[in-house]
Protein: Ribose-5-phosphate isomerase
Organism: Gigaspora margarita
Amino acid sequence: MSLTESKRQAAYKAVDTHLNSETRIIGIGSGSTIVFVIERIVQRGNFKKNDELNEKNENSDQKLEELDLDQCVFIPTSFQSRQLIIHNGLNLGEIDQYQEIDITIDGADEVDENLNAIKGGGACHLREKVVAEISKKFIIVADYTKRSTVLGEKWVKGIPIEVIPFCYALAYNSLKLLGCQKLNLRMAKNKAGPVITDNGNFVIDAYFGKLDGQQSLGNDNFMFINSPSEVLKRIKLLTGVVEVGLFVGMAEIAYFGEEDGCSVGVLKK
Ligand SMILES: O=C(CO)[C@H](O)[C@H](O)COP(=O)(O)O
């Protein structure tokens, strides 16, 4: 079964489990898995027209409720998710309109057994983090290739770090001094030059090895504990860094579409 099917299964499971007729303000992450989150939300909004969903409602343990989409507002985390919301005729909200979001569903590039995640493979992690931070519930959906024991085991491209463009050389050198093993200024495809984020910034991908909590030696000879929270803190302190694609202790639950494309694994805190 394809990776695409496993993404769809994870997305459907998260929507069916966590969205009900009371849900009003919904954060929408970015990436390929999120497309299926929106697909399922739209299906749930057309519940009465949708025979298959009605049948599931009658026959299964899981009671699916119709979503009153006119009453819901969707907060995007990127240009991509904004377009998805608009093209599906859903109500669009802006991040700064709300102090609290009921629930956010988002993808991830890697999720460890404590539900810490690397995000930003699509360079959207700044807005994704803002939305996750103000959400009462932050749920991750991903295919089975994203699940790991410790971060850095599967996603070896590096932690995505959004930086102010004129600070990128400084940030690059500071990351080297922190002991970063592999560094790349992310380059655009079909455009000469770097990727420019939705916020007008650059992205550096910085690989620090496995974030397994072992002591690590920076190039200027200081030691630090190579845990997700410590690495996050150290990178965040560097001048020119806007946001780091490490989401530590933010997710409540993660759903992974399994290899068979039919079942879904769950990681809970
Ligand atoms: O963090 C992200 C974008 O910045 C995405 O959520 C992450 O890259 C996963 O994407 P996909 O669902 O395509 O695997």
Observations:
- The longest strand covers residues 135-143.
